[in-house]
UniProtKB/TrEMBL annotation:
Major site of localization recorded for this protein: Golgi
GO-annotated biological processes: rhamnogalacturonan II biosynthetic process
Lineage, opening ranks: Eukaryota, Viridiplantae, Streptophyta, Embryophyta, Tracheophyta
Pfam families, per database record: Nucleotid_trans
EC class (word): transferase
Any single Gene Ontology cellular-component annotation: Golgi membrane
Protein's UniProt name: Glycosyltransferase
Length: 355
């Protein structure tokens, strides 16, 4: 792992601490041409020498090179290697990002660092730009699982690119379970106010949150809620905890199958969440499911729109999800309005710094 996690700083061998003396008055009036035959001959010889020996010479980065140094090493960084590096007690915290989401990733990471859980985070990058940038600043904490998607189209909610981006989620999570790890998955438009790992009571297969706005009692049932008007529950696919059990793997395989049965179309601009709910409902009798407390994991439609409820449940909130709103700028503004856009004043707390 050390070959992936350390880079050496380079000394600039071309710097010269000695200043040249000023020209003498005797020579100051004589024009000097650097294009005389002798100079041109020396330059020609130098070009030939560089051309002959350059395949065997490594030029320090930052002198002539404009590409990232040895960045291709992350192309062969595997999920198995990444998990063994970040996991603590067999558990990892995972998010999936493409380049447009990096500011939200940074905001999310600041909140996680405040709970001292940042070392457990693995970012699954959906493009090479994100993979390189994250591992350049935070070596070992990003991995790419091919194939690479179109990063620009992936962030437009309701688009085919967004569907393709979110539809890869269950397969990524299934790979992690099959390697023997428990995983907490988060979307990056979330902020931690507490430690969600401390909320995982019992030893259930799958933990999840309700995406509905109606207020539940503080001691509400932890069973899968009944189906709504569309014939399925409204569970959020954006905050999930799974153990590497047969039951959790069954849910993920069913989720993948449901996505294949409900592909994106121009008339049915779907995303991964309905398929997740169908999968939960169809496997509920075979899997140990657990609904997390609403007061700790409120949907954005409740937290940002019901000030009375927020006041009554103060001190119980653990993760705030900035959903029920579409658009990067609108999400950022709402986070700012509620003091949750942390990157403005606290970027130094992120493992990535200011990006």
């Amino acid at each position: 792992m050390s070959m992936f996690l350390h880079q050496r700083s380079l000394h600039n061998a071309f710097s010269n601490p000695f200043a040249a003396p000023p020209p003498s008055s005797a020579n100051s009036k004589r024009p000097i041409s650097i294009l005389n035959p002798a100079t041109l001959l020396v330059l020609l010889c130098l070009v030939m020498v560089v051309g002959v020996f350059s395949p065997w010479v490594t030029i320090p980065h930052g002198i002539f090179s404009v590409s990232k140094p040895a960045v291709s090493k992350w192309n062969s960084y595997t999920l198995d290697q990444a998990l063994s590096f970040v996991a603590k007690n067999g558990t990892v915290i995972v998010c999936i990002v493409s380049q447009p989401y990096l500011p939200f990733l940074n905001n999310w990471l600041i909140s996680i660092r405040r709970q001292n859980r940042q070392d457990m985070v693995l970012v699954i990058a959906e493009d090479y730009a994100s993979l390189y940038k994250i591992n350049e600043r935070w070596p070992g904490h990003a991995v790419l699982i091919p194939p690479v998607l179109d990063a620009e189209s992936a962030h437009k909610f309701g688009s085919k690119g967004f569907f393709n981006f979110t539809a890869r989620r269950p397969s990524h999570l299934l790979k992690i379970l099959e390697l023997g790890y428990s995983v907490m998955y988060n979307d990056v438009d979330m902020v931690w106010l507490g430690d969600p790992l401390l909320q995982l009571e019992g030893n259930h297969d799958v933990y999840f949150t309700d995406d509905m706005i109606p207020i539940k009692s503080l001691n509400h049932s932890h069973a899968l809620p009944p189906p709504g008007k569309k014939g399925r529950p409204y569970i959020c696919s954006c905050m999930i905890f799974l153990r590497p059990t047969g039951g959790a793997k069954l849910v993920l395989r069913k989720w993948i199958q449901e996505l294949q049965n409900q592909p994106w179309s121009r008339t049915q601009k779907s995303n991964d969440q309905p398929a997740f709910n169908w999968a939960l409902m169809k496997t509920a009798k075979e899997v140990d499911l657990y609904l997390l407390p609403q007061a700790a994991f409120p949907t954005g439609g409740l937290y940002f729109k019901n000030k009375t409820w927020v006041k009554e449940t103060k001190g119980k909130h653990v993760i705030i999800h900035n959903n029920y709103i579409v658009g990067f700028e609108k999400k950022i503004k709402r986070f700012r309005d509620y003091g949750l856009w942390l990157v403005d004043d606290h970027a130094d707390e992120s493992p990535l710094g200011r990006i």
